[in-house]
């Protein structure tokens, strides 16, 4: 039994410090994004609780306080519970996602929020944690390096079931984040062929939107024909596989139109169209991204200064406290501040990988890589959509974006890892 004092000494304090810095800077950004010049100079002293609840910065303070309570619980609970209860938590979350899909009222086109009076929670955020636990527990019981397709099918099922429920609630962005777990699976021995096939499929789908289909089909056919001419072994040993691949590519190319026009929602089609042609409708569909890039570019080297951002102050960028919070950083803190924030994220991810690699159990190591992968994808996609490099899929910037569900979920992901890491030496005795 590890005493609390010894356990506290085992906590990775550099990782805790990075968390505190990001959460603190995130609150400053939320305050700036939701600041109103008409507000009282000292609102905490002059306004009542109900009036303060109208401000995102105040509600974020409350979420930060509850996150601190969560941290204590996560570090005090028996670390073995994360492994033991992994499947129970996973299936409980599936049930919660299903309940949410049935009873939640539509908000901004999706049924993904449970409401408890003034408080709203999004179970999809927490499903990343329970899925990471379940996948880590499963991979600790098998050896993916043996390339057992049955085990890989079970792992795929563990990942795709919550994805299907989240997609059914019309939360495409949250569902896409689960693809991050593939990076952790790859670390534990999943065949790189799976990653290559998925990447190749994504490239083909993107090219099908950008390049005339006949050109794309003709080019791929020519490449395959030349490969056959240069390597006679392809005819004898890989003819069926090569022709099957050719047929699959042709089907994907011509299936893009059906998927784009009949599967995607109108707002999802608009996001892809604006990514392909950002200048198509800058005052309509492209308003968010256009104003976001203006805000980022206007900050210059050192920014306009705290609370001096015109794009921020006059609400030119919608959702600036949540999905587009990085606009505030770029406009008010400039290139220097943006680089500092990006550097903190890079340090956080690097530290998580170091913590993951020093785990004594497959469960702990895999879970650590799941945490790093989820945070990496959130960070990359959020900055990419803010800069107009990726479609606007509506996922928050970890620890920065306003919102209780996102702050709680990222806090749980990180501090469950810290709890496992603090007791990693005990895994040798189990």
From TrEMBL:
Q: Which domain of life is it from?
A: Bacteria
Q: Which Pfam families match?
A: FTSW_RODA_SPOVE
Q: What is its main location?
A: membrane
Q: Which UniProt keywords apply?
A: Cell membrane, Cell shape, Cell wall biogenesis/degradation, Glycosyltransferase, Membrane, Peptidoglycan synthesis, Transferase, Transmembrane, Transmembrane helix
Where is the protein situated, by its record's location annotation? Membrane
Residue ranges crossing the lipid bilayer per the database entry:
56-77, 84-104, 153-186, 193-209, 215-232, 239-260, 333-354, 366-393, 399-420
**InterPro entries the UniProt entry points to:** Cell_cycle_FtsW-rel_CS (IPR018365), FtsW/RodA (IPR001182), RodA/MrdB (IPR011923)
Q: Which GO terms describe its cellular component?
A: cell division site; plasma membrane
Q: Which GO terms describe its biological process?
A: cell division; cell wall organization; peptidoglycan biosynthetic process; regulation of cell shape
Mode of membrane association: Multi-pass membrane protein
Q: Name one GO molecular function term.
A: glycosyltransferase activity
Q: What is this protein called?
A: Cell wall polymerase
Species, as recorded: Hymenobacter polaris
């Amino acid at each position: 039994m590890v005493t609390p004092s010894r356990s506290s000494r085992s906590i990775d304090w550099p990782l805790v410090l990075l968390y505190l810095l990001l959460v603190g800077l995130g609150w400053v950004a939320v305050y700036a994004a939701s600041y109103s010049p008409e507000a009282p100079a000292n609102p905490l002293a002059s306004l009542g609780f109900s009036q303060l609840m109208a401000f995102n910065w105040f509600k974020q303070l409350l979420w930060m306080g509850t996150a601190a309570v969560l941290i204590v619980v996560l570090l005090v609970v028996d670390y073995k519970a994360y492994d033991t209860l992994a499947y129970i938590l996973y299936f409980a979350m599936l049930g919660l996602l299903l309940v949410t899909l049935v009873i939640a009222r539509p908000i901004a086109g999706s049924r993904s929020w449970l409401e408890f009076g003034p408080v709203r929670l999004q179970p999809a955020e927490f499903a990343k944690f329970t899925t990471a636990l379940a996948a880590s527990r499963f991979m600790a019981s098998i050896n993916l390096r043996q390339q057992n397709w049955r085990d890989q099918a079970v792992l795929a099922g563990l990942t795709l079931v919550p994805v299907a429920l989240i997609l059914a609630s019309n939360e495409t962005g949250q569902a896409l984040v689960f693809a991050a777990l593939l990076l952790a699976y790859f670390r534990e021995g999943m065949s790189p062929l799976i990653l290559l096939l998925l990447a190749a499929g994504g490239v083909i789908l993107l090219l099908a939107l950008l390049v005339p289909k006949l050109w794309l089909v003709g080019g791929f056919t020519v490449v395959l024909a030349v490969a056959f001419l240069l390597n006679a072994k392809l005819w004898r040993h890989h003819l069926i596989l090569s022709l099957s691949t050719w047929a699959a590519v042709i089907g994907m190319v011509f299936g893009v139109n059906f998927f784009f026009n009949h599967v995607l929602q109108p707002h999802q089609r608009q996001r892809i169209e604006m990514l392909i042609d950002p200048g198509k409708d800058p005052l309509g569909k492209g308003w968010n991204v256009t104003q976001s890039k203006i805000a980022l570019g206007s900050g210059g080297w050192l920014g306009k200064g705290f609370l001096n951002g015109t794009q921020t102050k006059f609400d030119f960028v919608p959702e600036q406290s949540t999905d587009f919070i990085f606009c505030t950083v770029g406009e008010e803190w400039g290139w220097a501040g943006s680089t500092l924030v990006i550097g903190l994220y890079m340090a956080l991810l690097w530290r998580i990988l170091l913590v993951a690699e020093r785990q004594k159990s497959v469960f702990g190591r895999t879970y650590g890589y799941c945490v790093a992968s989820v945070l990496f994808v959130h960070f990359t996609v959020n900055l990419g959509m803010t800069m107009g490099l990726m479609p606007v899929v509506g996922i928050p910037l970890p620890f920065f974006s306003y919102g209780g569900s996102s702050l709680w979920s990222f806090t749980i992901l990180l501090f469950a890892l810290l709890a496992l890491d603090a007791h990693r030496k005990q895994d040798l005795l189990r």
